[in-house]
Design a protein that fits this description.
about 350 residues; six-stranded mixed β-sheet; Purple Acid Phosphatase, chain A, domain 2; elongated; alpha/beta; 2 domains
Length: about 350
Protein backbone atom coordinates (compact mmCIF):
# COMPACT_ATOMS: atom_id res chain seq x y z
CA UNK A 1 0.00 0.00 0.00
CA UNK A 2 2.82 2.39 0.91
CA UNK A 3 4.66 1.46 -2.28
CA UNK A 4 1.61 2.33 -4.41
CA UNK A 5 1.15 5.59 -2.54
CA UNK A 6 4.83 6.45 -3.03
CA UNK A 7 4.55 5.82 -6.79
CA UNK A 8 1.48 8.04 -7.06
CA UNK A 9 3.22 10.78 -5.09
CA UNK A 10 6.30 10.59 -7.32
CA UNK A 11 4.09 10.67 -10.41
CA UNK A 12 2.24 13.77 -9.15
CA UNK A 13 5.52 15.47 -8.25
CA UNK A 14 6.91 14.66 -11.70
CA UNK A 15 3.85 16.18 -13.38
CA UNK A 16 4.14 19.30 -11.22
CA UNK A 17 7.84 19.68 -12.04
CA UNK A 18 7.20 19.34 -15.78
CA UNK A 19 4.34 21.84 -15.57
CA UNK A 20 6.62 24.30 -13.79
CA UNK A 21 9.31 23.81 -16.42
CA UNK A 22 6.74 24.30 -19.19
CA UNK A 23 5.41 27.45 -17.50
CA UNK A 24 8.90 28.93 -17.05
CA UNK A 25 9.99 28.15 -20.62
CA UNK A 26 6.71 29.49 -22.04
CA UNK A 27 6.93 32.66 -19.94
CA UNK A 28 10.50 33.33 -21.01
CA UNK A 29 9.52 32.69 -24.63
CA UNK A 30 6.55 35.07 -24.45
CA UNK A 31 8.67 37.79 -22.82
CA UNK A 32 11.41 37.41 -25.43
CA UNK A 33 8.91 37.41 -28.29
CA UNK A 34 7.06 40.45 -26.91
CA UNK A 35 10.24 42.46 -26.35
CA UNK A 36 12.57 41.35 -29.15
CA UNK A 37 10.49 39.98 -32.06
CA UNK A 38 6.99 41.39 -32.43
CA UNK A 39 7.89 45.11 -31.97
CA UNK A 40 10.00 44.93 -35.14
CA UNK A 41 7.70 42.63 -37.10
CA UNK A 42 5.85 45.28 -39.14
CA UNK A 43 2.64 44.30 -40.92
CA UNK A 44 1.87 46.04 -44.20
CA UNK A 45 -1.90 45.97 -44.32
CA UNK A 46 -3.83 46.68 -47.54
CA UNK A 47 -7.36 48.08 -47.23
CA UNK A 48 -9.76 48.93 -50.07
CA UNK A 49 -12.03 51.85 -49.24
CA UNK A 50 -15.16 52.85 -51.16
CA UNK A 51 -15.75 56.57 -50.64
CA UNK A 52 -19.03 58.18 -51.74
CA UNK A 53 -18.44 61.20 -53.96
CA UNK A 54 -14.85 60.33 -54.83
CA UNK A 55 -13.89 61.97 -58.12
CA UNK A 56 -12.85 59.63 -60.91
CA UNK A 57 -9.40 61.25 -61.07
CA UNK A 58 -8.67 59.90 -57.58
CA UNK A 59 -10.11 56.43 -58.11
CA UNK A 60 -7.32 53.93 -57.44
CA UNK A 61 -5.17 56.37 -55.49
CA UNK A 62 -3.10 54.89 -52.69
CA UNK A 63 -2.74 56.54 -49.28
CA UNK A 64 -0.03 55.11 -47.04
CA UNK A 65 -0.50 55.75 -43.32
CA UNK A 66 2.01 55.43 -40.51
CA UNK A 67 1.39 56.59 -36.98
CA UNK A 68 2.95 56.81 -33.53
CA UNK A 69 6.61 56.64 -34.50
CA UNK A 70 7.62 57.42 -30.90
CA UNK A 71 11.33 58.11 -31.25
CA UNK A 72 12.92 56.71 -28.08
CA UNK A 73 15.57 54.20 -27.02
CA UNK A 74 13.83 51.49 -29.07
CA UNK A 75 12.86 53.52 -32.16
CA UNK A 76 16.37 54.32 -33.30
CA UNK A 77 17.39 55.99 -36.54
CA UNK A 78 18.19 52.60 -38.08
CA UNK A 79 14.73 51.20 -37.26
CA UNK A 80 12.96 54.29 -38.54
CA UNK A 81 14.94 54.16 -41.78
CA UNK A 82 13.76 50.58 -42.34
CA UNK A 83 10.15 51.69 -41.80
CA UNK A 84 10.61 54.53 -44.31
CA UNK A 85 11.98 52.02 -46.83
CA UNK A 86 8.88 49.85 -46.33
CA UNK A 87 6.62 52.87 -46.87
CA UNK A 88 8.44 53.81 -50.08
CA UNK A 89 8.02 50.27 -51.42
CA UNK A 90 4.24 50.77 -51.33
CA UNK A 91 4.51 53.54 -53.97
CA UNK A 92 1.75 55.61 -52.42
CA UNK A 93 0.27 58.68 -54.04
CA UNK A 94 0.26 60.44 -50.68
CA UNK A 95 1.62 59.56 -47.24
CA UNK A 96 -0.09 60.59 -44.00
CA UNK A 97 1.42 60.56 -40.51
CA UNK A 98 -1.06 60.74 -37.65
CA UNK A 99 0.91 62.00 -34.68
CA UNK A 100 3.17 61.08 -31.76
CA UNK A 101 6.62 61.48 -33.26
CA UNK A 102 8.38 62.01 -29.92
CA UNK A 103 7.87 60.08 -26.67
CA UNK A 104 6.98 61.69 -23.36
CA UNK A 105 7.20 60.33 -19.86
CA UNK A 106 3.52 59.58 -19.24
CA UNK A 107 1.65 59.77 -15.96
CA UNK A 108 3.19 63.08 -14.90
CA UNK A 109 2.33 66.77 -15.12
CA UNK A 110 4.03 68.10 -18.24
CA UNK A 111 5.30 71.59 -18.94
CA UNK A 112 4.41 73.20 -22.25
CA UNK A 113 5.03 76.85 -23.23
CA UNK A 114 5.54 77.77 -19.55
CA UNK A 115 2.19 76.28 -18.61
CA UNK A 116 1.54 73.30 -16.38
CA UNK A 117 -0.87 70.97 -18.15
CA UNK A 118 -2.44 68.33 -15.86
CA UNK A 119 -2.55 64.86 -17.35
CA UNK A 120 -5.36 62.44 -16.61
CA UNK A 121 -4.72 60.46 -13.38
CA UNK A 122 -3.44 57.03 -14.34
CA UNK A 123 -1.25 55.74 -11.53
CA UNK A 124 -2.34 53.15 -9.03
CA UNK A 125 -0.39 51.16 -6.47
CA UNK A 126 -0.35 48.18 -8.79
CA UNK A 127 0.96 50.26 -11.69
CA UNK A 128 3.69 51.77 -9.49
CA UNK A 129 4.79 48.25 -8.57
CA UNK A 130 4.84 47.20 -12.23
CA UNK A 131 6.80 50.35 -13.07
CA UNK A 132 9.55 49.42 -10.60
CA UNK A 133 9.72 45.92 -12.07
CA UNK A 134 9.86 47.22 -15.66
CA UNK A 135 12.61 49.71 -14.75
CA UNK A 136 14.67 46.87 -13.28
CA UNK A 137 14.20 44.84 -16.47
CA UNK A 138 15.11 47.94 -18.56
CA UNK A 139 11.77 47.68 -20.36
CA UNK A 140 10.68 51.00 -18.83
CA UNK A 141 12.72 54.15 -18.45
CA UNK A 142 13.56 55.55 -15.02
CA UNK A 143 12.56 58.98 -13.73
CA UNK A 144 15.53 60.47 -15.55
CA UNK A 145 13.68 60.12 -18.86
CA UNK A 146 12.67 63.78 -18.89
CA UNK A 147 16.31 64.65 -19.68
CA UNK A 148 16.06 63.12 -23.14
CA UNK A 149 17.75 65.11 -25.90
CA UNK A 150 14.84 66.18 -28.11
CA UNK A 151 17.15 68.15 -30.40
CA UNK A 152 18.75 64.85 -31.37
CA UNK A 153 15.28 63.29 -31.78
CA UNK A 154 14.37 66.13 -34.14
CA UNK A 155 17.47 65.40 -36.21
CA UNK A 156 16.55 61.70 -36.38
CA UNK A 157 13.01 62.61 -37.43
CA UNK A 158 14.16 65.03 -40.11
CA UNK A 159 16.87 62.87 -41.63
CA UNK A 160 14.64 59.79 -41.81
CA UNK A 161 11.36 61.32 -42.97
CA UNK A 162 12.97 63.44 -45.68
CA UNK A 163 13.60 60.10 -47.46
CA UNK A 164 9.86 59.49 -47.93
CA UNK A 165 9.03 59.51 -51.65
CA UNK A 166 5.28 59.55 -52.42
CA UNK A 167 4.05 60.59 -55.86
CA UNK A 168 2.43 63.77 -54.53
CA UNK A 169 2.44 65.04 -50.94
CA UNK A 170 3.07 64.07 -47.31
CA UNK A 171 0.71 65.31 -44.57
CA UNK A 172 1.02 65.15 -40.79
CA UNK A 173 -0.83 66.05 -37.62
CA UNK A 174 0.58 66.21 -34.10
CA UNK A 175 -0.30 63.96 -31.16
CA UNK A 176 -0.45 64.23 -27.40
CA UNK A 177 3.14 63.03 -26.91
CA UNK A 178 4.36 65.78 -29.23
CA UNK A 179 2.65 68.42 -27.13
CA UNK A 180 3.86 66.93 -23.85
CA UNK A 181 7.49 66.99 -25.04
CA UNK A 182 8.48 69.72 -27.52
CA UNK A 183 5.97 70.27 -30.29
CA UNK A 184 7.99 73.12 -31.77
CA UNK A 185 10.90 70.79 -32.48
CA UNK A 186 8.52 68.19 -33.90
CA UNK A 187 7.01 70.75 -36.28
CA UNK A 188 10.44 72.01 -37.33
CA UNK A 189 11.63 68.48 -38.06
CA UNK A 190 8.54 67.69 -40.10
CA UNK A 191 8.54 70.91 -42.12
CA UNK A 192 12.29 70.61 -42.80
CA UNK A 193 11.51 67.14 -44.18
CA UNK A 194 9.12 68.66 -46.73
CA UNK A 195 6.03 67.47 -44.84
CA UNK A 196 2.86 69.58 -44.69
CA UNK A 197 1.80 69.93 -41.05
CA UNK A 198 -1.93 70.57 -40.76
CA UNK A 199 -3.17 72.27 -37.59
CA UNK A 200 -6.92 72.72 -38.00
CA UNK A 201 -6.27 73.31 -41.69
CA UNK A 202 -7.44 72.04 -45.07
CA UNK A 203 -5.25 71.15 -48.05
CA UNK A 204 -7.08 70.57 -51.34
CA UNK A 205 -5.71 68.36 -54.10
CA UNK A 206 -7.25 69.10 -57.51
CA UNK A 207 -7.19 67.04 -60.70
CA UNK A 208 -9.29 68.01 -63.71
CA UNK A 209 -11.93 69.70 -61.61
CA UNK A 210 -12.15 66.95 -58.97
CA UNK A 211 -11.06 67.64 -55.39
CA UNK A 212 -9.65 65.54 -52.59
CA UNK A 213 -9.56 67.59 -49.40
CA UNK A 214 -7.07 66.50 -46.72
CA UNK A 215 -7.97 67.95 -43.33
CA UNK A 216 -5.70 67.93 -40.30
CA UNK A 217 -7.21 68.40 -36.85
CA UNK A 218 -4.81 69.40 -34.10
CA UNK A 219 -4.46 67.28 -30.97
CA UNK A 220 -7.70 66.63 -29.08
CA UNK A 221 -6.21 65.46 -25.80
CA UNK A 222 -4.45 68.80 -25.28
CA UNK A 223 -7.46 70.81 -26.40
CA UNK A 224 -5.86 72.05 -29.62
CA UNK A 225 -8.40 70.68 -32.08
CA UNK A 226 -10.96 73.08 -33.55
CA UNK A 227 -13.51 71.25 -35.68
CA UNK A 228 -15.71 74.33 -36.08
CA UNK A 229 -12.82 76.26 -37.63
CA UNK A 230 -12.12 73.38 -40.00
CA UNK A 231 -15.77 73.12 -41.05
CA UNK A 232 -15.91 76.86 -41.78
CA UNK A 233 -12.95 76.52 -44.16
CA UNK A 234 -13.96 73.22 -45.75
CA UNK A 235 -14.81 73.49 -49.48
CA UNK A 236 -18.32 72.53 -50.47
CA UNK A 237 -17.21 70.09 -53.15
CA UNK A 238 -14.94 67.08 -53.17
CA UNK A 239 -14.17 64.12 -50.92
CA UNK A 240 -13.06 64.98 -47.40
CA UNK A 241 -10.51 62.94 -45.44
CA UNK A 242 -9.66 64.06 -41.91
CA UNK A 243 -6.52 63.20 -39.95
CA UNK A 244 -7.05 63.11 -36.17
CA UNK A 245 -4.56 61.58 -33.77
CA UNK A 246 -7.20 60.35 -31.28
CA UNK A 247 -9.71 57.92 -32.86
CA UNK A 248 -12.54 58.39 -30.36
CA UNK A 249 -13.16 61.87 -31.76
CA UNK A 250 -14.79 60.10 -34.70
CA UNK A 251 -18.20 60.45 -33.06
CA UNK A 252 -17.94 64.25 -33.34
CA UNK A 253 -16.59 64.08 -36.87
CA UNK A 254 -19.39 61.78 -37.97
CA UNK A 255 -22.03 64.10 -36.49
CA UNK A 256 -20.84 66.88 -38.80
CA UNK A 257 -21.80 64.77 -41.87
CA UNK A 258 -19.03 66.45 -43.88
CA UNK A 259 -16.40 63.72 -44.00
CA UNK A 260 -16.11 60.36 -45.67
CA UNK A 261 -13.02 59.06 -43.86
CA UNK A 262 -11.05 59.63 -40.66
CA UNK A 263 -7.52 58.27 -40.18
CA UNK A 264 -6.17 58.00 -36.64
CA UNK A 265 -3.57 56.33 -34.41
CA UNK A 266 -2.90 56.95 -30.70
CA UNK A 267 -4.05 53.64 -29.20
CA UNK A 268 -1.26 51.41 -30.61
CA UNK A 269 -4.00 48.79 -30.76
CA UNK A 270 -3.36 48.42 -27.02
CA UNK A 271 0.18 47.06 -27.69
CA UNK A 272 -0.72 43.96 -25.66
CA UNK A 273 -3.76 41.85 -26.50
CA UNK A 274 -5.08 38.97 -24.44
CA UNK A 275 -7.05 36.35 -26.40
CA UNK A 276 -10.82 36.38 -25.80
CA UNK A 277 -10.56 39.49 -23.62
CA UNK A 278 -10.89 43.22 -24.21
CA UNK A 279 -7.57 44.96 -24.74
CA UNK A 280 -6.50 45.83 -21.17
CA UNK A 281 -4.28 48.87 -21.81
CA UNK A 282 -5.87 51.66 -23.83
CA UNK A 283 -5.24 55.41 -23.50
CA UNK A 284 -7.89 58.09 -23.01
CA UNK A 285 -9.58 58.97 -26.32
CA UNK A 286 -8.44 55.65 -27.74
CA UNK A 287 -10.76 53.21 -26.00
CA UNK A 288 -13.82 53.06 -28.24
CA UNK A 289 -12.08 52.38 -31.54
CA UNK A 290 -8.63 50.96 -30.74
CA UNK A 291 -7.67 49.31 -34.04
CA UNK A 292 -8.90 48.61 -37.55
CA UNK A 293 -11.82 49.75 -39.68
CA UNK A 294 -15.12 51.07 -38.31
CA UNK A 295 -18.15 52.12 -40.35
CA UNK A 296 -20.74 54.75 -39.45
CA UNK A 297 -23.09 54.65 -42.41
CA UNK A 298 -21.39 56.63 -45.18
CA UNK A 299 -18.48 57.59 -42.87
CA UNK A 300 -15.51 55.36 -42.07
CA UNK A 301 -12.79 55.44 -39.43
CA UNK A 302 -9.50 53.58 -39.54
CA UNK A 303 -7.25 53.34 -36.47
CA UNK A 304 -3.66 52.41 -37.24
CA UNK A 305 -1.77 50.37 -34.61
CA UNK A 306 1.36 52.49 -35.03
CA UNK A 307 4.94 51.53 -35.79
CA UNK A 308 6.47 52.55 -32.47
CA UNK A 309 5.72 52.05 -28.80
CA UNK A 310 5.33 54.04 -25.62
CA UNK A 311 6.53 52.50 -22.38
CA UNK A 312 6.59 49.62 -21.59
CA UNK A 313 8.38 48.67 -24.82
CA UNK A 314 6.53 45.45 -25.57
CA UNK A 315 3.97 44.20 -28.08
CA UNK A 316 2.00 40.97 -27.91
CA UNK A 317 -0.52 39.85 -30.55
CA UNK A 318 -0.54 43.45 -31.77
CA UNK A 319 2.05 43.91 -34.50
CA UNK A 320 3.17 47.37 -35.64
CA UNK A 321 1.39 48.45 -38.78
CA UNK A 322 1.79 50.34 -42.04
CA UNK A 323 -1.59 50.73 -43.74
CA UNK A 324 -2.04 51.09 -47.50
CA UNK A 325 -5.48 52.36 -48.52
CA UNK A 326 -6.71 52.08 -52.10
CA UNK A 327 -9.48 54.59 -52.75
CA UNK A 328 -12.47 53.56 -54.85
CA UNK A 329 -15.47 55.55 -55.98
CA UNK A 330 -19.00 54.53 -55.10
CA UNK A 331 -20.04 52.98 -58.40
CA UNK A 332 -23.64 52.67 -57.21
CA UNK A 333 -23.88 56.42 -56.95
CA UNK A 334 -23.58 58.57 -60.07
CA UNK A 335 -22.60 61.60 -57.98
CA UNK A 336 -18.95 60.56 -58.03
CA UNK A 337 -18.85 61.05 -61.82
CA UNK A 338 -19.93 64.67 -61.66
Amino acid sequence: MLRVLRKQTLRICSVIVWLLIWFIVTSVGVIYYSYEIEPGWVEVKHVNLKLPGLGKEFDGWKIVQISDIHINDWMTRERLERIVDLVNKQEGDIVVLTGDFFTSKTGYTERLNNEIIPRLPRKTRRRRLFRKIFVKLKILESDLYEERDYERDKETLRECLRRLKPKYKIFAVLGNHDYSTNHNLVEEGLRESGIIVLKNEVYSLEKNGHYLNIVGLDDIMFGRGNLDLVLSNLPKGGTNIILVHEPDFANKVWESHRFQLQLSGHSHGGQVRIPFKRTPFLPPYGQLYPAGLYEFGDFQLYTNRGVGMSYPLVRFLCRPEITVFTLRGDYNNNDWLQ
